[in-house]
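Schema walk-through. Below, the input block comes first and the output block second. Nothing else is stored per chain. Lengths vary across the set, and this one has 264 residues.
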Amino acid sequence: MAAGLGFKTFTTGEVLTAGDTNGYLMQGILVFATEAARNAAITVPAEGQFAFTKDTNTTWFYDGAAWVASGSPLTTKGDVYTFSTVDARLAVGANATVLTADSTTATGLKWAAASSGGGQGVAVVLGASQSIPNNTDTFINWQDEVFDTDAFHDNVNQSRFTVPAGKAGKYLFAGTVQFAGNATGTRNASIGKNGAVGGSRLAIFSAPAYGSTELNINFYYVAELVVGDYLGVAVKQTSGAALDVFGNSSNTSASTASFMYLGA
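--- output ---
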């Protein structure tokens, strides 16, 4: 069949040629029972030609290389109309999932679990008291986990709270360090990133000694971290001798820490 010639107004008495018939009058939508019947009848389709198949109630157009369905590909409530190399259907996702860009998929989209920091993190308690040398930055080794949703706390390197795969983003790191009573010197707790303390610490919280009464130092920090980063709490005291940081076995109000994922 010849390629379409567009629209023409014929005048009275004008001779209708075979080319006119093929180029103008045959450009309507041809109706067939099935795709197979269409393909048998139109062996050399022209680009821009339309056909209709009754078995699927589908309108088709020929794009110069293949017949393409011109109707919607959607079949189910919640489907999304997308595109790969042709119009495509993205089936509705599971409840509570969200539509997410993903260049690895054919349409560039997928349904995925919502990214949320709600309830994701770890809380720990210092189980046994830890002796802190005089005038030395020393990381607290947190032995007891209250909960840990995604393996944030390292049970081998117990001072570390590490960002796992898929959880890069913002974190709240907070807690309390309880020093044994002593009237000499100062006490501090600092937050170190990836093992760094001293001048590389993220934050420091200090207090003077408080006599024979236990001294609590509260710490808190919001950090933006990438996968593999880890935080720890380093403490320092200048009493002149080793001094304990209390654990749960020594005091009911033991040293504690939490590392909570706030989201991307």
